[in-house]
Amino acid sequence: MIETLLTGGTVVQPELLLQMTQNEAFEFIHDDTLLATSLWANIALAGLAILLFVYMGRSIEDPRAQLIWVATLLVPLVSISSYVGLTSGLTVGFLEMPAGHALAGEGEIFSPWGRYLTWTFSTPMILAALGLLAGTNRAKLATAITMDVGMCITGLAAALTTGSYLLRWVFYGISCAFFVAVLYVLLVEWPADAAAAGTSEIFGTLKVLTVVLWLGYPILWALGSEGFAVLDVALTSWGYSGLDIFAKYVFAFLLLRWVAANERVIGQTSTTERTGASPADD
Questions:
Q1: pLDDT in tens, 135-178
Q2: What is the DSSP pairing of strand 108-111 with strand 93-96?
């Protein structure tokens, strides 16, 4: 009996996947239009975002504002690199799910593990930009970024663990624990810093946008082929791509637009840090 792999309507014999080359992986992705467009849409939007953000930051002069701009610009730069890797078949794989998984025995399942590379390098830049905007100290910034990296790496471990269904969810739980630490910094620590820095209004908007959208990622993981397999690979891919579009490019546009128009406020925060005075003393 020949087992088959079902991914969004695409049927592939698993014995072929065991020897699949990068070129064959590329063809596999582009045989599924819904899956392929979920990747190409992000490449196109990341490219446009890079050009737009370079233009928006052309006249920024304050050092802190420039750091925010650089961190924000790195988000689409990392994303376009990662999505090209996914689309080319370079950073994808095919995994046989362990016993207990909904897709166990269905052959090898398409795994776009390269997404975790995107998140590991781009989400720390989002947090760096937010932390700089809030005028937070180095300890809080380092805490948020290291917890975030831990979240992404253990999420990757959850996606790639095939020896035990239970351990996939253990890694998922650890990743969520790291995420809780990030949420604590965003929701508890940084709002007070932003109020002191005079950036609380824009920080509050970006904080809500980030928290709401980032909550969607673990939900999609649980519902997608990596978790309970309620959603197929192509729909899950579009879900991740949609979240990336709003959590990265829309977020970055709102942030840079505000920074470019309020560079003086950012400059005051920089001056306060150098002199040790409170914002009220300026």
A1: 999 999 999 999 999 999 999 999 999 999 999 999 999 999 99
A2: antiparallel
pLDDT digits (tens, 9 = 90+) for 62-111: 999 999 999 999 999 999 999 999 999 999 999 999 999 999 998 888 99
Strand partners, 108: 96
Q: Is-contact 60 259, C-beta < 8 A?
A: yes
d(CA 129, CA 177): 23
pTM: 0.88
> Could you tell me the domains of the chain?
33-92+111-273 (1.20.1070.10)
Per-position b or e across 184-206, b if 16+ CB within 10 A of its CB: ebbeebbeebbbbbbbbebbeeb
